[in-house]
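Annex B. Sample input.
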Amino acid sequence: MAKLSQEDLLAQFEEMTLIELSEFVKAFEDKFDVTAAAAAPVMMAGPGQAGPGAEVPEEKDEFDVVLTGAGDKKIQVIKVVRELTSLGLKEAKDLVDGAPKPVLEKVNKEAADKAKESLEGAGASVEVK
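Annex B, continued. Sample output.
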């Protein structure tokens, strides 16, 4: 039997349906007593990246915007808080008076940065966590 090149094998796999490919993987695992899942994390780690077991810091995708102080322009800050949230006047005033308090929770980075910029523009001091 002629030996197939890697390109020939890949061309054959391209023509297979997902079900056929899944059945092939099962047969391969049975024949050679291996599991494809064990190699997947190692293969997915790119060059220079750690393999399984190494701690990779998770990139944060949810942020909290916390009002730490109202500053001198408390009324302006209350207006901005009302624009950013669906709070009424009394609730927004209570939030500003009770600082440090979260204004927005679990928002994306863009929304958090925009809110921080708006609040700081009104004179408030803000943290993004």
